[in-house]
Amino acid sequence: MTTIRGDDITETIRALLQYIAVYHAPDYIQRLSEAYKREGSGAARDAIGQILQSARMAALGNRPVCQDTGMVTVFARLGQRVTISGDQSLEDCINAGVRLAYLDAGNPLRASMVADPIFARRNTRDNTPAVTHVESCLGETLELMVAAKGGGSENKARYAMLNPSASVADWVVDTVSGLGAGWCPPGVISVGVGGSAEKAMLLAKRALMDEIDMPALLRRGPDTAEEELRIALYQRINDLGIGAQGLGGQTTVVDVKVTSYPTHAASKPVALMPQCAANRHGKVTLTGDGPVYLDPPDLSLWPDIDATSAMANLRRVNVDTLTKAEMADWTAGETLLLSGHILTGRDAAHRRIRDILARGEALPFSLQGRVIYYVGPVDPVGTEVVGPAGPTTATRMDGDTQMMLDQGVVSMIGKAERGPDTVSRIAAAGTTYLIAVGGAAVLVSRAIKSARPVAFDDLGMEAVREFKVEDMPVTVAVDTTGQSIHVSGPARWRKRPDPATG
Length: 502
Fold this sequence. Notes:
- The chain has helices at residues 6-22, 26-38, 42-61, 90-102, 151-154, 168-177, 197-207, 214-220, 225-239, 307-311, 324-327, 347-358, 401-406, 420-428, 441-446, 485-493; strands at 2-5, 71-79, 82-85, 114-115, 122-123, 131-137, 142-149, 158-161, 187-195, 253-263, 269-275, 281-286, 315-318, 335-344, 371-373, 411-414, 432-435, 448-455, 464-478.
- By secondary structure, it is α/β, with parallel strands linked by helices.
- 47% of the residues are buried.
């Protein structure tokens, strides 16, 4: 029999969540570095480069790799000969660790969990509770696999009950092609097939934490039908040309996982889970000898990227004097360096603005001629003016875009594509939509030189702030003519099937 102290579980969870918030998984960094070296699309290569630069900054500075520090998911395998000492359940011990990790004074993580998900949606303030799955197994240890899943990729999870004769591969490729870029590629796609509806989803979620082994699989060749399917999906998904951040390119996924389980003869449940560029997860095993800690990865894994020379020839824009006439010279896919003052605001701020205007009241700030950044940053520490501050998925603000344009907004910054109707509205107003790179939160925050509260302080990370930025890198996603890089980029890089092979 093994006795594991509840406090040791709590401390292990605390330390592991701090670890995965700061360090990408080494296997992912290695694969992303390889993708950076071979990427032929300039826009996609630049996006991958920003992710790698930001990841190294996060590791060196002990700061979150992404401002969305995720919903905590734990897969626990509890040996039948293990006793947990103390007066808390396993889930209570895990949640205590989550609370300590997210409230850490030295590296606070953004609280994103809301209670009463149907009505009040009130933030729990400490990112509890975790979503915990416990499996009883033989043995005398407790294995914990922990992930911090961002909302952008979690929101793109998909499920279908296929006919038994239907093609899993075709469904997966069709589904990925329709996901857009909100899940922040390049990443991993995991597919669970079989069992029941919830089992398929769990299969897919759990497999996201397995080591990225696609390069080794490609070298040795498949041994099973599932491995053949993995290779086929890997090639077909990358052939879609979606590329990093949906800008069009050669690498959309660095791996594809496929896991299956027996199912009812009349059923074929299939689940798809994307893993974003943050790729935060870790695995530890407790044996009763105290808490377990992971060693930091070797920083030599990161490639050398000459960011200075890459920025030398980019167009510099003063947003304080920005006009629609100036924006008319921008082209979709062009990278800009922004300086000046921008406002922040995302879901909750837009709802608050809508309510104020609906009451016929004046806003507590002017949007005329302003650029708005869809962001919910991490709290600053030390001398920081703001914590990691990467963009959130812009499509969630599509319904309020006309309202913001009517108030005088001239440009918006977020991540991923906008809907066709929103693109048309942006073009009709002679305005633009820009994207910052999802997964490059630390890099973006270094361009923010000051931050001051403007309105709605009660919304926490969703409050409206004014950032003063200097050389903030963004890409023109929608120009004033309505051209969208999220349409033209993938179209350019998409490989058409060979008619002879289908």
